[in-house]
Amino acid sequence: MAVYDCNRAESRAEGLTAAAGAVRSSRLVVLPTDTVYGIGADAFDAEAVRGLLRAKHRGPDMPVGVLVGSWSTVDGLVLGVSSQAKALIEAFWPGDLSIVLPHAPSLQWDLGATRGTVMLRMPLHPVALELLRDVGPMAVSSANISGRSPAATIDEAQEQFGTTVSVYLDGGPSGEPVPSSIVDLTGSEPVLLREGSVSAEAVSEVLGVPVTANS
């Protein structure tokens, strides 16, 4: 287990190299995002993703979302980027909006019981983006054991996961632990599954149709 202070240039570079090596070796990393800290693994490494779920004491019935480092990455992960998805990506990425889309059937991954869908987000955090652009899409969930509060600091993440995680990237306190909003575009109408930092009104304005939170 190693912790790297990403607020110092030298330590940040070392940490990103170590984190990339860990991801490529089927190990887990904790990384800062623009919401709370996340625990992540290679999205295409099924055993690593299962390890992530075990670390959180969570089953496959609660699948893991995927973080990407660029807009263009999405094209290879989904069945198609609809005009609605494109509008939301252009308006809110990188940022606090997760989008659920049908995933490309050719992909060999196992994120849990996704029922043929994937939840995608591009985070607005330089450390996360640099790692994602190096290793590719990562399965990432909030850094907490199921039922506990998501980690807002690297110390809180370490306290929960200890040596289960190989590399911790410390980006400082995450601020208010407001979750991302989640929009489901897999049906005939968009559905706001979770209203977080992006409001229903903001989503509705971009899509040009009323969108209400799923109750």
TrEMBL record:
Primary residence: cytoplasm
Molecular function as annotated in GO: ATP binding; double-stranded RNA binding; L-threonylcarbamoyladenylate synthase; tRNA binding
GO biological process terms held by the UniProt record: regulation of translational fidelity; tRNA processing
One Pfam family of this chain: Sua5_yciO_yrdC
Spans through the membrane: none
Keywords per UniProt: ATP-binding, Cytoplasm, Nucleotide-binding, Nucleotidyltransferase, Transferase, tRNA processing
EC code(s) of this entry: 2.7.7.87
Subcellular location: Cytoplasm
Annotated GO CC locations: cytoplasm
Top-level EC class as recorded in UniProt: transferase
Classification via InterPro entries: DHBP_synth_RibB-like_a/b_dom, Sua5-like_dom, TC-AMP_synthase_SUA5
SUPFAM superfamilies in the record: YrdC/RibB
NCBIfam families membership: L-threonylcarbamoyladenylate synthase (TIGR00057)
Similarity-based family: Belongs to the SUA5 family.
Protein name stated in the entry: L-threonylcarbamoyladenylate synthase
